[in-house]
# Entry
Amino acid sequence: MCSLALFPPPLPYGQTTVCESNNELLSGSSTEDQLKQDFSPPSLSFPRESLKLHSRTENSSKAAFLDHSETLWMRSAAAWRDGGLTGLLNEITNSHPHVPKWLSMSSGCILALLRWVSSFHGSLFPHLTLSSEDMIAEFSQVLNWSDCVVRAFAWHPHTDKFAVALLDDSIKIYNPKSATTPTLKHRLQRNVAVVQWKPLCASALAVGCQNCLLVWHVDPCSLSTRPSAGCAHVLSHPGHAPVTSIAWSPSGSLLLSASPMDTAMMVWDVAAESCVPLQRVGGGGVTFLSWSPDGSHVLASTPSALFRVWETRMWTCERWPCIKGRCQSGCWSPDGSRLLFTVQGETVIYALTFTNTPAVPSGTSKGPHAAVVVADLSETTFNTPDGDIVVGGEIQSLAWDPRGERLAVLLKGDPRAADRSPIIAVFKTRVRPIFELLPCGFVQGEPGAEPRLMQFHPNFRHGALLTVCWSSGRITHVPFYFLSASIPRLGPSGSPTLPHVQERPADFANQSLFTELIS
Amino acid sequence: MFSSEQSCWFIRKVICWRAAASIAWAVLLLPPSTAIFVFLSKFSVLHPIQTISECFSMLTSATAIFSFILLCGVIIMVGFLNFEYYTVIPTIACSKIALFGQLLHPRQLVNSLVHCIMGMIVAWCSAVTIGFRYETLGHPCAQTDGYHQMCLNEYHLILLLGGAFVGFSHSLLGVIHNMNYVSFHTVQQYKYLRFKGCLPLVVRCSATQALYSVRNFIVVYYFLGNSAHPLDSIAGLLDLSLLYHLWISATFLLFTWYIMLLLFRIFLTEGYSFPVQSSFTEDADHCLPKVLTEKQPMLLKFLALQDLALLSQHSPLRRCEVFSLSQPGGHPHNWNAISKECLSLLADLTQRLVAYHDTVATNGRAKSLSSGKDFMSPRPTAFMKTPASVFARSIAGGQQSPLTAPFTPDLDSPFMSPALRRLAAPVEQGSPWYGTVQSPHIMRRVPKLWSFRSYNCNKMQSSSQALFADSQAHIWALEGLSYLVQASFSEDQFGVVQTTLPSILSCMLVLQEAVDRHFKLPHASSKPVRSTSSMGDSTYKTLRFALRATLKTAIYRITTTFGDHLNAVQLSAEHQKRLQQFLEYKE
# Structure
């Protein structure tokens, strides 16, 4: 098993990780030390002060106006529209001079009964009592989401452009080949939890936010910096909000969305604006989705200690109960055969292996029987010249590079202890012929900046490129230069890359590694 | 002759069995739904125990068993009507008048009459089941001179008439909402799970629809009824218990019929796996390449295309058979037949779009369209030959070319929309329709023009829907082709796909151009209003958007897989340029 003790110690104070080259993580004291390369995506910075923040809430404006003199019917209709059944009952109960006493009494009783039932329901699933914003923060893959300047980030799957969702509910799209930076704003685009580009498409960007799901069509040739709201399609379904996770199918035909409030996971046909709910009651909601790169499976975790793995041919699922907590994060190997996941409250990474049997026409895949622990990230103390540094603990999110050679793990750290700040640990991995996990090193930013969100570039030619969003509002890119040892797969340019002579990491040859046993 | 034999095989062996299975399940589901209905109709808050005992004695009585047998008969009849009237290509009425024509079609009148009678039968069953004051049509009423006489029991009558009314309105709404249209889902699911997922929708739909129908019925009854009866007054009709019983029996009626419809749809659209090739010659006609080219029945073609799309996506072994060579001779017969059929489908759609665009551009409305004439110049001459003949063919040979079926019902009805008739006939300068829009008579009256425009726009949107009514077939053809081409990059050992790659690419690019141009028409890109609480399937309204998205994704799938290798493919300069846009992700 791979553990943090095998890692090279973290960088001394003031040093930043620049890149990996020749099997070594290079560091520098400032960002100017970056190596010159043929592809350098822009490093961006969004200082918190530059954003125009607004503290509006839809309901608060009501109190600022004078007493409304609408008829009871109008008020009831408005209450029904805004707040549903509970809103209507509330309205009737509170306007007792206008309604008969028995009506206000009975609606008050029904309201109390409803509240009692929902509190009972809430005690079964405590997350239901959270507000939408807290819920997104709780289940987001972003560390400390509510306080984050960059709330979501997405590379385009085929080109070098990316989308950044900011604290002020706007989304900016950066393209190194274009001078224009479109800014997307929409009335319904509030508290963006996740963004993702549609595969096999140049323009469609799906956005999961507090009340609905938006699909923007951003014409790559357009020179407009403010695409109109008409470019966005709103996808909403009653009871399906807030959306905390979305996933496009790798073939680009379907979009999945999940909400912790809804036990059904939605499969959207975006062009037809129709959806098929896939309902499974256990778990009390769906928090995180991850579609395997080969399109055959989907990981769907719930707020309870349970997650599901769906197969996407007939949409049946396997239940995977966890012992300790809910499944916090997960990622798939490029061939879709392996799922790595982490569980809240535990400091290890588990692996599940799926063997697809395409010969069986019904598309049933024989699943594994138990998860295997592949890495232990429990707290480890490193002796550095600056003093002892404690690294390790619970895991916030996982990211695996598209070639399956680097695995980045965002460790939560401990906000109460100064010496246990969040940090990114990177592993070297190999999927074929056997699954291996080797330590690589820690990725650190400028002093005081904590990593919040990370994603690998989907088609970096010289290895892997990890994009990290920091608490300071800065977005940096850390390249990992290596020759791919994997089986040639289709690159972004379409041509299979030539197989290279595999280079063995000699430094780690004598250390104990996680190596799968071939049975 | 041969093809009719073949389709007989499919109807006999697959479709009939599916319909029978759906009817059997609907009959099996009847006892629980009847039990729930009995319980709800007899429920009283004050005597819960008594309700339950009454329900049990009711369910085991002879009349209950007799009415249950009647209900089974009704369900079988409904299933039979579903089977008789179903279609995979919706009939889209392009105007209100055309819709009216559809409603007055003799076939539809028979349908309505049968539904009326069945509604009455179900209402009789529910009246007997509810018992109480509804049980019999006559009741003894005391006369002053001593002997008894039978009087009409109006409570029974109102239930019977209510059932007939609900049955009739169900049949009308079936036409208006295209309830006989069977759509295919993008997500494959097992039948049980799909049924379970749709059940809440069915309950909600039947309850709301019953509410509306009962409201309308009450209004009709009030105005048409004889005022001598005690019930035909506002006070008499506002009897809560009566309204509740009317509503619950209408809900029960609609629920059983909707369940039948739902089961029928689920069973009919279940995927069917055709063999790609067979080693026995007698089975050769059941194989995918052969079945794809069949014209009738339409469902067979749709299921074959769905199977193609699924196999191209999910099963490497069956893809391998598609790419294989015939044993003596070494010809890629399977791939040739499949790709040829898919390409001809796509080319057919392209022609239809071009013809439609030309028709729209050459009539009076051309002024309002953006540069309608400009599009005409770069057209390849091959498609210029028959601008309106596509539509003419579809009338002449409605039977032979079922793919253009959406147009036929409009045309054989006397109320065919003028727009479609114009599409159908080659446009003539002297035709009465020609230039009507520009006539000064209309231009002078602005409000009238406005209403005319909105009417016209609505009509144009409908005709745009009708143009894409069968596009599910094209979507599958695009998916099937693009996934097969993508898989051929690593799986095609003999290079059979390479030979057709130029024609596939150019076909898709030409279609892309035609679709792009179609969406520049003012009515084409407006989204229809979605109705969620209806059993009618409105998938057909958005098929054109789905087709556009699928087409783009299909081209991107090929360009992303082959990348720069595509520069070696023989294409015209214009198409090369277009493809380069896709390679640079600028479309």
Remarks:
- The CA atoms of residues 457 and 465 of chain A lie 5 Å apart.
- Residues 101-124 of chain A form the longest helix (24 residues).
